[in-house]
Design goal:
- The chain has 464 residues and is α+β, with helices and mostly antiparallel strands.
- The chain has helices at 2-31, 40-50, 52-73, 91-100, 111-115, 138-204, 210-245, 269-279, 281-302, 345-411, 417-452, and strands at residues 36-38, 78-88, 120-134, 253-255, 307-318, 327-337.
- α9 runs antiparallel to α10.
Amino acid sequence: MRLRFTFFRMLRKLLLSALPVWLLAAAFSQQAPEPSPLTLQQAVQIALEKNPLRKAAVADTKVSSAGVLEARSFLMPHLTFSETVTRGNDPVYVFGSKLRQQRFATTDFALNQLNTPVPFGNFNTRFGGTWNLFDSFASWHGMSRAKQMSEAAGHQLDRTDQEIVFRAVNSYYEVLLATKQLEVAEQAAKTAQSILERSQARFDSGLVVESDLLTAKVRLAERQQDVIQARNTLELARAQLNTAMGVPIDPAFQPAEVLAEHALPVPVLEEVERLALTNRPDLKRVASEEAAQRQSVAIAKASFGPRINAFAGWEMDNPTFVAGGGGNSWLGGIELQVDIFQGGAKRAELSRQRALEQKVAAMNQAARDGVRLEVRRAYYDLDASRQQVEVARAAIAQAQESLRINQDRYDSGLTTITDVLGAEESARRSQSDYWEAVYRVRTSYANLELASGSLNLQSPVVTP
């Protein structure tokens, strides 16, 4: 009986001590879910939906659209309503208020009442309106300018979308590259471990000196450090991908694709340049801004012309707010206004707008020249990356064969540890260079499409 009691007491202690471990494991399993698979096209789609830079660009289009409505309002009549309550004993005020209320009597002509009237109150209800009939077409030019700026904002939104797509593509392939570089680092660590074991065996047999063994240990430590760095680089690349997509930075996605060679269309430089000069949204934006600035010059010229305004008003005056017994009246008219002299302000404004027009035209030309340069840089980067893939692919087999030969010769005592480690470094570097070249082919192609203004969700680099 006592033994059974002791057994159950020990079992209870064991369960109580293990309970926190179980709870911690359960909590960890809830806090660290498996990353969701993510294709490149899905990453781009998420970026176009959630990236804050796109939201900012959309807000800019709304601002410019509101500017069009505001400019159009200057072509429409403006109506106002006002309710004014006044009270006082100013002689002119009392005299005029009684007239407006149609309560003026013969007794009000008495000098005492005219000079020192008793306080008098007035409730004035007024509807008024103005209409800009003609302003030398300044309002029409203003509306045209607002429309051009709205078009510029729309073109900038298109360019922002392309830049978001490029950042998503580039970040996605950086994750794929970091994954491959981690595999290369781990394989290099295994190779270094194998070299260390060979050196240890030959040292134990008395065939090599201790320096060979120490050199192999140093190389293994270097490769282990490379693995640590590669893992951190992969985590950083995942965080960068999340940032490009506009989602929380904690990695929650696992790319569903792997880095590999894919056939892509071979572009022609002249066609890409022609396409860029025609389709680049930022060039269209600058062209719209130039057209808008021409309208600004026209507005400055119109300020020298005459302006014709119509105005009208109807008002009702009562002694109290609710009681009637007051009077009402209306007034309307047309005004012709011409500025004769303003100290040269209008001429200075016209000079300023013309200078800005020249500036925008120069910026337009500079932008077109810059686009041509961007296209050529992206084109030659892509061409170099394609050739580097061919060279790196051939170097892999050569480096691996060189490593095998040097290892066999080292085992036979025909070469030194230095030659083996040199061959191991060449094998590791050839693998790393190959995957770097494959990565650059994909990103260079995306950059070329970005430079040509054709990068979108259906681009070949997005949907391989």
